[in-house]
């Protein structure tokens, strides 16, 4: 696959993702319905694209759990700093919880079974997998994180692109270290369960 072909595929996939995120965050009353459809589309794209590397011999679940907890603790510390240094950004955290937090039983199911794997298979599996053919591993992690964060700009909340960028950096590093998407999905799942279900930051 040539660099031109890789660039074309990345551009196409990023355009699709941005369109999906745009409609998801501009139809807040039906956010969970639209986002479920969007994530299923991204998951479908991912199944048609080979993952860049899968070391099935590496044990990635435990590092994933540790990384998920560490990511949550980092966000907890960041939230505490926001309260003191940037109260307007902290107010956005409260508003995001009020508007987007899961409330119905099926929200929790799609969060774990659809949102988390779809995002990781797409951003780490597809986008990272294509970019790593062009850039060095850590550059790939950074560029993927930028693209991931930028896709959430449609939410209207600065805090969401920032959060997506930081978490994508952490999980991207885990991905290149363990070379296993399952570990990253585990990290993302643990983080989301802590952040949205068991220990929300509000």
Automatic annotation (TrEMBL):
One of its GO terms (biological process) is proteolysis. GO terms for molecular function: peptidase activity. It holds the Pfam family Rce1-like. The keyword Translocase does not apply. The chain crosses the membrane at residues 7-24, 60-85, 105-123, 159-176, 181-201. The keyword Protein biosynthesis does not apply. Its EC number is 3.4.-.-. Residues 104-193 form the CAAX prenyl protease 2/Lysostaphin resistance protein A-like domain. Keywords: Hydrolase, Membrane, Protease, Transmembrane, Transmembrane helix. It comes from the Bacteria. This is CPBP family glutamic-type intramembrane protease. It comes from Heyndrickxia acidicola. The lineage of its organism: Bacteria, Bacillati, Bacillota, Bacilli, Bacillales.
